[in-house]
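User: Modeling request: complex.
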Amino acid sequence: MRFPWNRMESDLKREVAHHLDLLTAEYERRGHSHEDAVWMAKREFGGSEQVKERCRDERRWAWMSGIWQDFTFARRQMRRSPAFAATAILTLALSIAANVIVFGVLQALILRPLDVPHADRVMTLARTDQTYPIFPYPEVGDVRDASTVFSAVAAWSVWDLGLEANGVTRPVWAFPVSGQYFEAVSIQPFLGRLLGRADDDHPGASQAAVLSWPSWQSYFGADPNIVGKTIRLNKHPYTIVGVTPEGFYGTEKFVQPALFVPMANAASFGEGDLESRGYANVWSIVRIKDGVSMPQVQTELNTIAAGIRRQFPKADEKLGFKLTRSGLMGDFLGAPARAFLAAVMALAGIVLLAACANLGSLFAARTADRTREIAIRMAIGSSRWRILRQVLVEAFVISILGGACACGIAWMALTSLAAWHPPTTYPIVFFVTPQPSLILMALLTSVLAGVLFGVMPLRQIFRTDPNDAIKSGGNQAFAGRRWALRDVLLAAQIALCCVTVTAAFVSLRGLGKALTMDMGIKPKHALIAKFELSQAGYLGAAADQFQRRLLERVSQLPGVAAAGYANSTPLNQDTPTTEVFSQQTTDFRASNRAFYSYDYAVSPGYFSAAGTALLAGRDVSFADTPKTPDVAVVNQQFARRLFHSEDAVGRYFKNSSGLPIQIVGVVADGKYLTLSEDPAEVAFFPISQEAATKTSLVVRIRPDFPDDATNDMAATVRKVIRDLDPSVPIRESSPWNNQLGMTFFLSQVATAALGIFGAFGLLLSIAGTFGLASYTVSKRLRELSIRVALGGQAKQILAASLGRMLILLGSGSLVGIVLGVAASRLLSAVVYQASAQDPFVLIAVALTMVLSGSLSVAGPVRRALRTDPATLLREQ
Amino acid sequence: MANKKTDLIQGTLDLLILKTVAHEPIHGYGIAQRILLTSKEMLQVQQGSLYPALHRLQRKGLLKSEWKESGSGPMGKYYTLTASGRKTLQEEQAQWQRYAGAVALVLES
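Assistant: Request completed. Predicted assembly structure:
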């Protein structure tokens, strides 16, 4: 490459050579022989390299050319020892990528504010008595009417609607919003207008809908004349009045609605009674007025809550309000998400620390390798600064390369995470677009880590006497018997890696248990078709007829072992609850309640289709009608809780309106909301007594059929529904196991994250151990070969060369396992049945460490044992 | 070579180089030789100081250099004064003479 300083360099060389020529000629003229003259000229001139170096210092771009020389030298060094360079770069890339990915998710879900003006004034109204921030609609109205500290108070919810446009009906997720919703978020429409107070004034006040940007793009082809067009929602005509701007997804960071409709129209969609104070079904957001402080807000909320409690003591006697950050369902998802991300961030930090330790020992070994070279350079007049600069540049090059690789990895991971939809029917999206600031962070971390640990080992060099170093070849000075910095670093690194490995095993074990546990249902060989009949205009008796006709058809299909339907199925994240009172209760206020019970409406045949064992009594029957006495089937836990025995058939309980209900059957316990829940009480009511339009048809195929027959049957069921009425929008028809994805989702995500960190940790510790072991062996080859030559046994050679490695590995692993066990207590919050005291986990971790340890020292051990003394001593 | 060598007083090397270069374009070896000759072998310039000084003066813009055929043999790097080099020479020479005169006055009193 031609650079100014390259030309200057050759210039300088020629100038010095010219001078020497003339000097030589002078001596020859005086009668010396040519050889003598050359020698005398050189002697008179003195150290030509020193002269050159001093000339270089005088030049204008002196420092630049020096740095360039350093870069060239660094490149050459890296080419000469690619293994070192690759290990260092990989170490940095992996650990920093892990940190950037976790931080990216953290930033997207927690740190970044909502994309609305003055996002810090928009808060979620939450309850003091539970973390799930859900309210009866009238209470939100009370807060809106009584408060003076908010500029807007709004309710919102999520409805599953059938959107009919351009001749196609699609199931979509809509946000029903109350009148002040768009005042609370304060956004400007991209097209047309947003929904206002007038739209929500009373049921039927307005048939207006606002599209979200993504649905405008995908369902309407970004039609610029969309405003004013008519669509049908569950067969009701609605006019599109506007489109929200790109990047607005409501106030929750992971839900993406297709459209917004007035909440006042709830009844027309069969979405329950907005006036009921006994049924909490809406979430609420508020915008705080400018200049109002949080204590003021809280005082006012307390007053309002006290007022509501006084006025409606039966409805909600524990009511209390508070405000939480918006974005993750208040603290309901926010708190666990923050806790989990903090834990993962800590793990990522540990990986980074381990990587730094690894890097430190790599650089230390490398610097020790170069002791002789550096000593020679110092002896011939190089300044310390010059040597330091050279090492700095080398560390810098490596860290920049590592940082760049890390950015690439992190970018790919975050982009694919953003494009990924979790296995659920809910409109969940991760908006984790990588931020440019992340790149900066990655590079900074990388350079800091690289340079810091690259330069640290130089201390030992500067302390050395160049004379000694040159004489001993740098060989014995450091690799010998003293405990060096790099030994401590290695032990620390192994301990840290052991923590991540322990965490990975704990979560793997937890997931394994979760996957094989008894869920009270048998999803294998079963499929579920889900649809909402009100979206096709069926209500009441019409829906009941449709469901029965469908069940008849499906039961007759060849290969079907059992079929039944319900309003919902366990582990579907939408389980309604009902209040249960004992038979003796006469005052049905909340404090007299026996407990809350999950509440399903099921058809005959549902239990056998779902694989839930009927332990006593009878199944529900179509003979149970609104005209016959009310009956229910309950699970064991229900019976135990209410009667302190499982003998419940024939006994009674009451619902919140005081109606006595007879228990006709008892079924086995199961899991209903999450896998990690404690045993929960459940009541199954006959769907013929408690009609529901929301339908989950469960079909079990014959057990002798192969697994993939479930898929075929799912398609057949879909066809049967279409044949009955093509206008029913089928949300899903697929094997039950696929639909349970979301249930395992959290533990799977946790396990995947922890597993990746475990793998990172393991890789790092293998790299670190291997590096140090092979370094130790190569530094002591001379000594080892002398031992071999003198008749040392293999065992002695091993003890001499790698004894210390084993001590380091053992003590590091031990400390790591203890730390890991302590840290894993925290994991039990996220991972089902995570326990670090599990002997399986301890043995697995110990085995992994032993295996990876032996793997990483195997190469160096072979080298030590195969030493041929003759060759080696000759070489040196 | 000569035995009665005197070390250069700090700071005088630049002046001597400028003065030597002022006569004609000359290379590094020539500068050292000429200073030795004209000082009757009293002043010997160390090569270790000469070249850094030449590069320093060039960086300050007092000297310029070009590669030329020397009388015999290979190409040599010849230095010449620039305009500002000539000006600096006059100033420094005058200052040196004042300084030397003053020192002489003190010593002869």
